[in-house]
Amino acid sequence: MNISRVxxxxxxxxxxxxxxxxxxxxxxxxxxxxxxxxxxxRRLRDLFGDPILVRxxxxxxxxxxxxxxxxxxxxxxxxxxxxxxxxxEFNPMESSRIFRIMASDYTESTLLPVxxxxxxxxxxxxxxxxxxxxxxxxHDVERGKVDMVINRFDSLPQSFHQVHLWDDSFSCVMSSxxxxxxxxxxxxxxxxxxxxxxxxxxxxxxxxxxxxVQRLGWVDEALSKQGVKRDISLFTRHYQVALLLAxxxxxxxTIPSMSAKSIAGSDRVVILEPPFEIERMRLxxxxxxxxxxxxxxxxxRQLIKSVSVELLK
Length: 313
Hints:
CATH architecture of the largest domain: 3-Layer(aba) Sandwich
Helix content: 25-40%
Structural class: alpha/beta
Shape: elongated
Oligomer: single chain
Number of domains: 3
Number of strands: 12
CATH class of the largest domain: Alpha Beta
Number of helices: 13
Radius of gyration: 24 Å
């Protein structure tokens, strides 16, 4: 096949079709009519000799050939986008850009105060739009609608770029009036009522149950390895709420240590090391390959990384 005879715009259409798996949504994203999008799909089928998308009970589903093509097409388009990207310098002092970052409230309470301080010095007109994990999907990140996500993840799409920011241990926070603090061991930990707090990954959250150890996370997995489990009274996705409730006399919250440090000076609570070993959590910054070479994005990534190093000192 002579490549000069191929309409390379079809690769753009293919990329969007495979992301959306829906002709109507793909047409809307590209700003063309649905008949034009349907015609493009027919041309793609002729070009590759494959149905590309087939209708199933789950909707339009990519064929094996389409799934094989998807990373190759994305790589070609990413290279083309980089080739035509204007080579302009990014001036943070003059920029008024808005960066959209998905972050849990753990990240907000630990990273953001220092990051904002540096932004005021280096880029006073730049604004941040902080989104919660429930606001964002991997699809949004892939399309560059969200600049980056900062969280801990069980798994990530292979195409995403990522950098490790820091690891964190865990701490137990409880009321200064909680009697277990005077006889602190695994038995007293297990005899107490607990607050579960976590929000990993992205997307809309789902309900939790005390018996679903794998989904409960590192604290409960660590206990499970010892053949025991804690008595969870409350499930929450907000670290600051958990810290507030830890002031009640009969509750314990086990959270990442950097988050616990935010109330270290309070006389209403005490902070103790867990009476058992818990795997350290790993915080990552993740972004789309579409934004890898963007000068402003690159500048912000470097700033966040440097702020993370400062926090660990």
